UniProtKB/TrEMBL annotation:
Residues 17-29 have a biased composition (Polar residues). This is 1-aminocyclopropane-1-carboxylate synthase homolog (inactive). GO terms for biological process: amino acid metabolic process. The keyword GTP-binding does not apply. It comes from Sus scrofa (Pig). Residues 124-461 form the Aminotransferase class I/classII large domain. Pfam families: Aminotran_1_2 (PF00155). Residues 1-40, 484-506 are annotated as: Disordered. One of its GO terms (molecular function) is transaminase activity. Gene3D superfamilies: Aspartate Aminotransferase, domain 1 (3.90.1150.10), Type I PLP-dependent aspartate aminotransferase-like (Major domain) (3.40.640.10). InterPro entries: Aminotransferase_I/II_large (IPR004839), Ethylene_sulfur-biosynth (IPR050478), PyrdxlP-dep_Trfase (IPR015424), PyrdxlP-dep_Trfase_major (IPR015421), PyrdxlP-dep_Trfase_small (IPR015422).
Length: 506
């Protein structure tokens, strides 16, 4: 695209069966075959959107402040599926007809390994210093271990420094803290969309910061492109568009490996994105929470911390947490690495609200020290189990003829169920999501990730096989029912296509 995209459109990009077919081989080692063309009279996708998450909000409680009402509204509007799941959670013995959760990105494959390791005697230690207020940045012994851990697994060319490490209770807190200390209320970050939708809450609720979505689409335009590919050109257009609306953009958020796409940026792409940010004096927040969850051997992950030289080290901030790579979402451990001492100090000041207990800090340090267990026991087994689960769900989707993307990283597959939508609208996408939930399986719908094209869903596969089998059986039942309804409907030659169509092999 060589010109700024139109800023308003109601028609999503639609991939039509009559389009041209191209067989592509991406740099990530996945074969991608596309059938995609745009209607001659169809407007191009709006290439960006300045988010205002409370635009549709109206206060409904006389007991809350306006800020409290917004916070409650976020909970009411964004947590419906998760709350429903927790009220009717599947259990093999106690509730076999409960909801199977294929929507929440948690790794449930290695509880046996983690339980044994965390129950060993070296993890059970109490001393007075662990029961007192710590350095708000985190105990020095933990920050030293984090620096060594990230130096090794991120392949840093030089040892990372403990004084540049800040420890908080999870990446949600890190996003909130960074948004608060980097931006004024009403300022914004660029973020490629689709993206992990909870980031909207993380940056908005405390800091009042907005997101400018850089819309990516599934259309493949050449042999060197892939679906939902981020380019500097798209970043430039979104930044230009936000500036034209009077919105000050302070930074760029990158998720690598990506949620929900499973994409892994090449070293060249990372360099281009960082160079773009430096040109415009933007901070870059790099979320590498899945850095140890790349299970496909042909996929090479490059941490930002592996670069010989950062284009702008004072504006580059890297976060990681144990929740995904170690299947410990309940532990609430997250860490920031930044060479900007002012940013580190400001975030550390907020750690008094987001710190970890001393006992958890001790356990995490012990875990990071045990490199033999991580390298020889945990990571090989975790990757093997992720690979097996991914293979099973991939084969199920292929059997159903469902196009999908998955690059061999993370816990999820990005699947296109658009052919099951009577019309290519987000209303129909939501109705399909509710039919899944009524059939006792929870998925995540594309609109929750700010996907511009209706019909995409995220399926999480990082669960035990008997749960996956039951979950996919319920998915199949819903889709077969939808297909039967469509088959029974009166045919019409002028009927609109049922949604975006593509064929993407992992």
């Amino acid at each position: 695209m060589s010109t700024l995209c139109q800023k308003e459109t109601r028609t999503p990009a639609t991939c039509l069966g009559s389009g041209s077919t191209q067989g592509l081989h991406s740099s990530n080692g996945d074969d991608v075959e596309r059938e995609c063309s745009r209607k001659p009279d169809q407007k191009p996708l709006k290439c960006y959107r300045v988010g205002d998450p409370t635009a549709m909000f109206s206060p409904n409680s006389p007991h809350l402040s306006s800020r409290g009402s917004v916070i409650k509204w976020f909970w009411d509007s964004a947590e419906e599926g998760y709350r429903t799941y927790h009220m009717d959670e599947y259990d093999e013995d106690k509730n076999p007809n409960g909801i199977i959760n294929l929507g929440t990105s948690e790794n449930k494959l290695c509880f046996d390994l983690l339980t044994r390791r965390l129950s060993q005697s070296d993890m059970l230690w109490v001393e007075p210093s662990l029961l007192q207020y710590p350095d708000w940045r985190g105990h020095l012994f933990l920050r030293e271990e984090v620096a060594r851990f990230l130096s090794f697994y991120c392949k840093s060319p030089a040892p990372l420094k403990p004084e540049n490490v800040v420890v908080l209770n999870g990446c949600a807190s890190l996003f909130s803290a960074l948004a608060t200390v980097l931006c004024e209320a009403g300022e914004a970050f660029l973020i490629p969309a689709p993206y992990y939708g909870s980031i909207t809450q993380h940056v908005c609720l405390y800091g009042g910061v907005r997101l400018v979505c850089v819309y990516l689409d599934s259309e493949v335009t050449g042999l060197e492109t892939r679906p939902f590919q981020l380019t500097v050109e798209k970043l430039e257009m979104a930044l230009q568009g936000a500036n034209s609306e009077g919105v000050k953009v302070k930074g760029l958020i990158l998720i690598n490996p990506h949620n929900p796409l499973g994409d892994v940026y090449s070293l060249g792409e990372l360099q281009e994105y960082l160079d773009f940010a430096k040109r415009h004096e933007l901070h870059v927040i790099v979320d590498e929470i899945y850095l140890l969850s790349v299970f496909e051997k042909s996929v090479e992950f490059h941490s930002v911390l592996s670069l010989e030289r950062l284009p702008d080290s004072q504006r580059t901030h890297v976060m990681w947490a144990a929740s995904k790579d170690f299947g410990m979402s309940g532990i609430r451990f997250g860490t920031l690495y930044t060479e900007n001492r002012d940013v580190a100090t400001a975030v550390a000041s907020l750690c008094r609200y987001h710190s970890l207990s001393g006992l958890v800090q001790y356990q995490m340090a012990q875990l990071f020290r045990d490199r033999d267990w991580i390298n020889q026991v945990y990571l090989p087994e975790n990757h093997a189990r992720l690979k097996a689960a991914h293979t099973y769900v991939s084969e199920e989707l292929r059997a159903l003829g469902i196009p999908f993307l998955s690059r061999g990283a993370g816990f999820f597959i990005w699947a296109n169920l658009g052919k099951y939508l009577p019309e290519a609208t987000f209303e129909q996408e939501m109705l399909l999501w509710r039919r899944f939930l009524d059939n006792k399986v929870l998925l995540s719908f594309g609109k929750a990730f700010e996907c511009k094209e209706p019909g995409w869903f995220r399926l999480v596969f990082s669960d035990r096989m008997h749960r996956l089998r039951l979950g996919m059986q319920r998915v199949r039942q819903v889709l077969e029912s939808e297909s039967q309804v469509a088959a029974d409907a009166p045919s019409c030659q002028t009927q609109e296509p049922r949604g975006p169509r593509s064929h993407c092999e992992d």
